[in-house]
Amino acid sequence: MGMEPEFSSEALGALIEQADGSGVEICGLLLGRAGRIETMVATRNVAADPARHFEIDPAALFAALRAGRRGGPEILGHYHSHPSGSADPSPTDAAQAAADGRLWLIVGGRAARLWRAVAEGERHGRFDAVRFAVTTGGHVEKNCEAVHMDGAGRTMTFAKAQGSPH
Ligand SMILES: [Zn+2]
């Protein structure tokens, strides 16, 4: 699959804190180029029951699509949180997801994991886990399958995937 998608530890940490303090699912867009996440843009969650579901504000989605067509960063995927505490996709997520290869960053339980929506995924038949890289200071943590932030919001730990990436 080439280069691992890359996030900054500051951006992931901020997202974990925001998700942990929210009783509803937070959501937003992952924008970038050539698989590299440049920005995460928070959007409104317009779902009827935002404590249990998310729906990206369509106005924000169309604005990002338009900006991408004019040479701005592309939409590589989106993120949302699970107030229930899991960073794994739910069956509802699988039912909602098109097998379009987009990235799904899921935040829950002070952790974040990355998934890709595919036709025959390992999880609920729709998602494959995606290994990612996290830049922290001048250093890059590669081959991450999850990041966790401690309760004080000071220390991020990196769960590394076993075996060689494919
Ligand atoms: Zn979900």
Please, could you describe this protein's structure?
Strand 2 and strand 3 form a beta hairpin. Strands 1, 2, 3, 4, 5, 6, 7, 8, 9 and 10 form a ten-stranded mixed sheet that branches. This protein starts with 5 loop residues before the first strand and ends in a 6-residue tail after the last strand. The protein is globular and about 35 Å long. The longest helix has 12 residues, at 9-20. The chain is built from three helices and ten strands. It has 166 residues and is α+β, with helices and mostly antiparallel strands. It is 18% helix and 42% strand. It has a single domain (12-130), classed as Cytidine Deaminase, domain 2. Zinc ion binds at residues 80, 82, 90, 93.
Instruction: Write down the overall geometry.
Output: globular
The fraction of residues assigned to DSSP E strands is: 35-45%
What is the CATH class name? Alpha Beta
The total beta strand count reads 10
**Largest sheet geometry:** 10 strands, mixed
pLDDT < 50 stretches: none
Count of helical stretches: 3
Q: How large, in whole angstroms, is the Cα Rg?
A: 15 Å
Through-space gap between termini:
7 Å
Q: Determine the CATH superfamily.
A: Cytidine Deaminase, domain 2
Give helix % range.
10-25%
Global structural class: alpha+beta
Name the bound molecules. zinc ion
The CATH topology name reads Cytidine Deaminase, domain 2
- Counted up, domains total 1
Provide the residue-averaged pLDDT: 93
SSE string, helices as H and strands as E:
EHEEHEHEEEEEE
What is the CATH architecture assignment?
3-Layer(aba) Sandwich
